[in-house]
Design a protein that fits this description.
The chain is of the alpha/beta class. It contains twelve helices and 15 strands. Its EC number is 4.2.1.51, 5.4.99.5.
């Protein structure tokens, strides 16, 4: 047998196996979808037809899939694949509406798709305030909002709105932020203006100072808006944005990964109208304020120590109603239904001048 004939025969055998596996996969996927439809019918029979998305159930499924994975596919790749399967199955009941900071092409859009999959209906909004209002009015089911960046810290407006919104935190998304310089220009020397969101300009401050010291830095409402402007044909214009914006607006990458911190990550919160149940690896977020006396903050933190609750975040913010007083945003490990967390919150309620639990929710998978 000639070498090329042997190669063709071997490839044909493997491709036949792939075709057979694909057929079985398709049958199993449709079988899974039928089961998802049955779940919807059962919920409708018991008056829970509106409860389509259960974050704790999804987190449990994805964690189990990740633990079962033996490769060669990566854990992240497998989780993303199954996220899309669940997204498609959920859409058979009703596609979920997700509001986020637009326009299309932002990191917020990427975070929304990462969490809800491509079958979700996306509703880009022009401001953080508008995102909250749209979901509060039930014109969309969920909000995805940035809450903090590993380089630039907390997003103040989101923290302020969490004080007053009736929405509950039911999930979180961690997005590795890779910033690129996008432009139709062909060389850095031709760049005279750089458009981007203020946070992105700050995240790339050192690179811009070193590589484009003469270029004007112009803050706009979002990275996607910056990409739109750079794509508009203005001479010398560039934008700092991510892969989604580059692809959506057809902008070449003049320089890649220009963020100053290599592990630059933004945390997004998922907000909705329902609480998330216990998933087995959860977080709880709350807001509290201390009485205005010496040692009061230490007193507030003691219940966490006494009941073995790990605190992962403590952020202060000026109280909007009283001059020179502060509220504290706290993240702790565990669900509010966990015994030790319940005990800590009960003790905290007796000591705090103000306490509000924003929600318990599954910790981000990756």
């Amino acid at each position: 047998m000639k070498p090329n004939e042997a190669l063709s025969r071997q490839l044909a055998e493997v491709r036949d196996q792939i075709d057979a596996i694909d057929a079985r996969l398709l049958a199993l996927l449709n079988q899974r979808a039928a089961c998802a439809q049955r779940v919807g019918a059962i919920k409708a029979e018991h008056g829970e037809a509106d409860v389509i998305y259960r974050p704790e159930r999804e987190a449990q499924v994805l964690r189990r899939i990740r633990e079962m994975n033996r490769g060669p596919l990566s854990d992240e790749g497998v989780v993303r694949f199954f996220r899309e399967i669940m997204s498609a199955c959920l859409s058979l009941e009703r596609p979920l509406g997700v509001a986020f900071l637009g326009p299309l092409g932002t990191f917020s859009e990427s975070a929304a798709v990462k969490h809800f999959g491509h079958a979700a209906r996306l509703f880009p909004q022009d401001s953080i305030d508008r995102i909250f209002r749209v979901v509060e009015a039930r014109h969309a089911d969920y909000a995805v909002v940035p809450t903090e960046n590993s380089t630039e810290g907390a997003i103040g407006r989101v923290m302020d709105l969490l004080m007053t919104t009736p929405l509950r935190i039911c999930g979180e998304v961690l997005m590795r932020i890779q910033q690129h310089l996008l432009s139709r220009e062909t060389a850095l020397e031709k760049i005279t203006k750089v458009y981007s969101h203020a946070q992105s300009l700050a995240q790339c401050h050192e690179w811009l100072s070193r590589m484009l010291p003469q270029a004007q830095r112009i803050s706009v409402g979002s990275n996607a808006q910056a990409a739109q402007m750079a794509a508009g044909g203005e001479a010398g214009a560039a934008a700092i944005a991510g892969d989604a914006a580059a692809e959506r607006y057809g902008l070449p990458r003049l320089a890649e990964n220009i963020e100053d911190e290599p592990n630059n990550t933004t945390r997004f919160l998922v907000l909705g109208h329902q609480d998330a149940g216990v998933s087995g690896r959860d977080k709880t977020s709350l807001i509290m304020s201390a009485p205005n006396r010496t040692g009061s903050l230490v007193d507030l933190l003691m219940p966490f120590t006494e009941h073995g609750v790990s605190m992962t975040r403590l952020e202060s913010r000026p109280a909007r109603h009283t001059l020179w007083e502060y509220v504290f945003y706290v993240d702790i490990d565990g669900h509010r239904q966990d015994a030790n967390v319940t005990q800590a919150l009960t003790a905290l309620e007796q000591r705090a001048a103000y306490l509000r639990v924003l929600g318990s929710y599954p910790a981000a998978l990756y």
